[in-house]
Amino acid sequence: DQQVKQNSPSLSVQEGRISILNCDYTNSMFDYFLWYKKYPAEGPTFLISISSIKDKNEDGRFTVFLNKSAKHLSLHIVPSQPGDSAVYFCAASAKVGNEKLTFGTGTRLTIIP
Amino acid sequence: GAVVSQHPSWVICKSGTSVKIECRSLDFQATTMFWYRQFPKQSLMLMATSNEGSKATYEQGVEKDKFLINHASLTLSTLTVTSAHPEDSSFYICSARPGTGAYGYTFGSGTRLTVV
User: Which residues in chain A show pLDDT less than 50?
Assistant: First the structure.
């Protein structure tokens, strides 16, 4: 039972354009969402997070949008840079402090120079 | 920033042997650490929650006798894969959270285990 889904296994974007990565979840108890970036043979690196009380959070080139009614979140990267090429995972937790993260299946983002 | 060190980064072992993976929080204390496993092109799956000074909490379907977890101090958790088999070959990652709140989980660099 995949409670967090990333339906696009891969995405290619031209350098300088916007990258949009999507994530859907099924568990209505999730109230905190995170995005991680991962390179091969390395651990994930935290990018940005959002609480369910918000619908948008922005940090530099990264913006996360949350649509609770649709159980959908997205990560926008603009402008995209070659160094952004990696696998991106969204993750969710049911309660701040619960500490258990449920990860999506990941989307491999390739930035084309 | 918070750093989690994981060792070894890769290991090859023979079937039937045991392998120990260490996870250390270098500049913070972690009463709780987490162990994940990732198969190729799949998501990170939580295996167990490691609790300092008490027994680990395992996720459904994870054999606690096969994946022994010890969290003897506030900065060290170990995962021992006992009697390893080729199907245990995977990428194992630990994580810890240096503060309160769900943000800020720090992950180790992972361990690639290959059982031959």
Answer: none
How far is the alpha carbon of B52 from chain A, nearest alpha carbon, in Å? 15
Q: How close B27 comes to chain A (CA, Å)?
A: 17
Q: List CB contacts of B109: < 8 A, sequence separation 6 or more.
A: A41, A42, A43, B5, B6, B9
Tokens read off for B74: 């506030």
Nearest CA in chain A to B51: A99
pLDDT digits (tens, 9 = 90+) for A25-47: 999 999 999 999 999 888 899 89
- Contact between residue A69 and residue A55 where contact means Cβ atoms under 8 Å apart: no
Q: Return the bridge partners of A90, or none.
A: A35
Contact by Cβ (8 Å): A107, A9: yes
Using CA coordinates, name the residue in chain B closest to A2: B43
CA distance B8 to A29: 36
- Phi and psi angles of residue A51, each rounded to the nearest 5 degrees, phi first: -90, 155
Buried b / exposed e over A75-94, threshold 16 CB at 10 Å, is bbbeebeeebbbbbbbbbbb
